[in-house]
Specification:
Layout (H helix, E strand, L loop, with lengths): L2 H12 L2 E4 L17 E17 L1 E5 L5 E9 L2 H12 L6 E9 L4 E8 L13 E2 L5 H11 L1
Antiparallel strand pairs: 1-4, 2-3, 2-4, 2-5, 2-7, 5-6
Helix pairs in contact: 1-2
Amino acid sequence: MSERLKEAAEAIKETPYVFVYGTLMEGFGNHMYLSDSAKICNATTHEKYTMYADGVPFVVKNIPSVNISGELYKVDHEVLAHNLDTLEGHPDFYRREVVEVNGDNEKMYEAWLYFYPSENLAIGRVIPERVVSGSYRKYVLEKWEKW
C-alpha cells in the first residue's frame, strides 16, 4: 500500500466525511470524483473563513469573514487518497484539515476541508475575487445572470 493510501486510511478512521464547497459539488465539473460516495446533506462551516474565486473557488483559513456553504459526503480512503487528495494537490497545493460543519439535517459533523494556504494568495495569481456570500453556487449563478 502506498504512503498516500496509508495516510488516507488513517485519516478516514479519524474522520470519514469531506466537506466540499466548489467544483466537487453536485452539478459542477469535478463532482464525478465523488460519484461513488454518499451525499449526507448540505452544510455550512461552523467557523468563518474567506472564499475567493479565480476560475475555481478556494477557501482561506486564517481570514475569517463568512460561513462557507457546501455539501457533506461520506468517503472511503481510496476516494480521499486517489480522487480528492490528487485533485486538490494535498499537501503541496491545497491542505486538507478537519473542521466542524453544520448539516441542514440539524447535526454537526467533523469533516475534511481543503484550504488554500493564505501565504500563497499573492504568488502567481491575479488578485482573486472574494465570494462575499460564502456560496460558490450562488456566486456562479449571479455571474451567469450578469452574462
